[in-house]
Each structure stands twice: as structure tokens, then as C-alpha cells.
Amino acid sequence: MSSTSTSGGTNGTTITTSEDVFQPPLTQAFHFSSGNPRIEEIQGVMHLYSNTVSTLPVGRKPLVCVLDVPNHMTYADFCQFSGSFLQHILEMRIVRNDGVEDRYSILIRFGDQEFADNFYQHFNGKRFSSLEVEICCILFTVDVQYTGSIERAQTSPASSTEQPTCPVCLERLDQDMGGILTTICNHSFHCSCISKWTDSSCPVCRYCQQQPENSTCFVCKTSENLWICVICGFVGCGRYKEGHAIRHWTETQHCYSLELETQRVWNYVEDNYVHRLIQSKTDGKLVELNSHCVHTSKNCGSCDCNADFGISETLLNSKVEAIVKEYNDLLRSQLESQKVYFESLLLEVKDETENEISKAVQKSVSLKLQKMQAQLQKCVEEKKFLDDINENLMKNQEMWKAKILAIEERERKALQMKDEKIKNMEEQIRDLMAHIETEKIIEQLPASSEIKDGTVLPIPMQSSSKNNSKRATNTNNKRRG
């Protein structure tokens, strides 16, 4: 069985909480506080779903918590970061987690679960700004319980009663009309009104969410027995801690150091406070430089009050002049030593810079030389590879030349044999033609006893060719005639 209740702050703004709610196993508790610590501080506990849940938790409410918002991000910056979801927000409450001074958290209640889910999916894990490394961490809220309040001072009746209007626009703080933002000091405003505020302070009480940082030792980070050098501003711990202040004096010769707790200046050279110059000679107490005896009206005889006032004033002025001169001499000596110290630092920096430049030049030259050597080695390897290829090509060229010569010789011999064969065939054809022509001539001649028993002899090649040419000429002439 569950029941709901509302808890309010100093200004009467409310946020819905639940009691006797079933706690899921994957939850974690965060202790928080809100309010102005000088007036009234409210403390409570937030029960949030663990960030180990990969999906949206079952049984969630339209109430989320934005954890670890950096202090330098103002309320107006967060309203601008929320963007279009701002009109769906019913209430925002700024709280501070216990033990975390440089960050704060924001409880946001939406009017619908869908908008809460969309807000979680859109902004969870997203950077607050592209120039920063902080990311937005959002967890669904199970329960918010207020454990009590601590009153630091007597509050006015106006602060303990409900404020129905916005201090900026003087309109009513109606949750149904728009979002309400409750700052860390428990003053409530409209989100549209507070978004116009430029700094991180409250427009009503001027309480600032960014608290001043405590001074610590530059070396060991302790906050007790601190001394600050009046020459360079170095903050170090005293000799009863780690002694970093006196160690700074031995390294830099800055002999004057101010104690932050008592605001007294110590001289390491004389090993005494500097205000010894204006100590009273009678009782050794610290007195104002231009003060006079308080017993002048009573004519006491226990001090120098009955002396002539002009002589006392002259002595006092001479003492003041001596003190001023001594201070000037000390300041001059400190400035000279500071000048020498900084000149030595400049020389060291110059030497270190020259050494770094020479090392950088040597490194760059060596790198360039290595690159050139690598390129040269690569070129040599390529040249060797090309030489091998060229040698192989030359060998192949000589081999192919020999093959070409052999082929040409074979072709020449084949042509020669072909010509001889053609010549022989022509002679045979000529003889055959002569034989045929002779037979034709013999057949055409009348039978005669002279050639009856004759023998046909072969005609020489030249004479046969001449006869053939004459015969061809006679044939051509007959055709023309």
C-alpha cells in the first residue's frame, strides 16, 4: 500500500514525494541539502534507480534527477540547455549533494511520463556544452524524503509563509500554468523569469551557488597555518606543518610573508614580525601608529603624557620618517633582489629554451636524415631491380636476334629452293610445249620420206625462246593485218 505526501521548503513551494514505496533492488540513495546555510538548511535523501539499468526501469515516475551539474552552469544556462522540454516541466528543484561543493543536482517533475522518457533518452550522456567535458547524467527518481531542517538564524515571517507570486514578474506561481524553478536557497521563480537572470546568484537573497574556494598550500594542499608571500603571492604552510613557506624563502629570498589567519607579516631574515617597528616601548603591545595616550585628560604621571605635545609630535614624526626610510630601504633591497632573481629565472628560461630549440633542431635534422637515407636506400633498391630487368632484356634481345637470323636464313634457303624448283618446272614445261608444237607441225606436214625416219632433237633454250618470240610477233602482225 503506498501513499503520497508533499514537503515544502522555506518559501512554501512543494514537491511530491512518496512514503512506504516498494524499493526496487537496483536503487541507490543520495543525501542532499538545500536552502541558505546562514538562515535555514533542509536535508533529505533521494532514492534513484541505478545507472546500471540498460533499459527504462519498470514502475518509473515522471520525476528525474540530473546529477553533477557544474557550478559554473547557471540556472539560465540549464534552462537554455533543456530547450523545448522546458514547457513540459511542471517543477524543478535545485539541491546540493552532501560532500560535493562544486556541483549541484536538479529534481525535475514532468506532467507526462512520455516527456520524461524523451527527456532521459535525449539528454542522458550528452555534453552540457561542446567546449566542456562534463556530460549530463540523468536517473529516474524512486522517492524523495526530507529528513529535517536546521535553522541557522531567526527567519522573518515573510520567509516562513508561502509566496504565491514570482518575485521577478509578480505573477502567481501556478504549476498548471508553467514550470517553477526552486533555487538552491529555496526561492521559487518561473523558469521563463529565471532564464533571463545572467549570474548564479538568487535575485531575492543574492545567495550564490558558487561558494568561495578556501586557500590551500600550493605544495601539500593543507588549509591550516597558511602564509602568503607578499612579493609573489605564493601560499605555503608554516614551519609547524610542512614548512613550505620558509622553504619558499630559502629558494627565492622573499623574506616577507603574511599569515592569513592573523594578517601579520613575518620577516624571515630577522626571524620576527615586521610590526615590531611600531610596538609600544612601555608594554610591548601593538598600538596604532598615530595614537595618543588615553589618559591625557586625567594628567596621569605613569607615562609621558605630561611632556610637551610639540616635542612628542616632533619625535613621533621623526620616528615615522625613520620607519618610512627603513621601509623604503627594505623595499628597495627586496626589489633589487627580486630583479636579480627574475633575471636569473629569465636566463634559465632562455638557456632551457635554447637547449630545447637545439634538441628540436637536432631531432628534426636526424629525422629528416633518416627519411632521406630511407628514400636513398629505396632508390638504390629500385635501381638494382631495374638493372636486373635491363640485363635480362638485353639477353632476351640477343637471343631473339639470333632466332630472327636463323629464321631469315631458313626463309632464304626455302626461297632459293623454291626458285630452283620453279626454274626446273619452267624448263620442263617449255620442253613439253616444244614437243607438243613439234608434234602438231609434223602432223600438219605431208607425208615425206625425209622425215619419216627422222628424229626430233631438243631445241636450245635461247633459240627456242627466239623462235617463240618470232612466232608470237608473226601472230600479232597477222591479227593486225
TrEMBL record:
GO terms for molecular function: ubiquitin protein ligase activity; zinc ion binding. InterPro entries: BRAP2/ETP1_RRM (IPR011422), RING-H2_BRAP2 (IPR047243), Znf_RING (IPR001841), Znf_RING/FYVE/PHD (IPR013083), Znf_UBP (IPR001607). CDD domains: RING-H2_BRAP2 (cd16457), RRM_BRAP2_like (cd12437). Residues 200-293 form the UBP-type domain. One of its GO terms (cellular component) is cytoplasm. It comes from the Eukaryota. Residues 166-206 form the RING-type domain. PROSITE patterns: ZF_RING_2 (PS50089), ZF_UBP (PS50271). Residues 350-442 form a coiled coil. One of its GO terms (biological process) is Ras protein signal transduction. Keywords: Coiled coil, Metal-binding, Zinc, Zinc-finger. This is BRCA1-associated protein. It comes from Coptis chinensis. The lineage of its organism: Eukaryota, Viridiplantae, Streptophyta, Embryophyta, Tracheophyta.
